[in-house]
Design brief:
Layout (H helix, E strand, L loop, with lengths): L1 E5 L24 H17 L4 E6 L5 E4 L5 E2 L1
Amino acid sequence: MITLKIPYAPVHPGVWSVNADDRDFPQFKSRVDALRFAIREALKFEQDGCPALVAVEGVDGQWRMFDHAGKGIL
């Protein structure tokens, strides 16, 4: 299982990241771009037989999990 994490705050002003284990991913100009990328990557992982989730940190500091289709996981 791989979890692609998108923190609430940018790494630097105007720069968002997607983190997952020790994998290198590009940086993004917006949080929405990072989210789109993470969902696409999660779908690729799923298609390759590796379960994947996307974790998004909210303004409240809570992490929310989504599957490769952007559906919330409880």
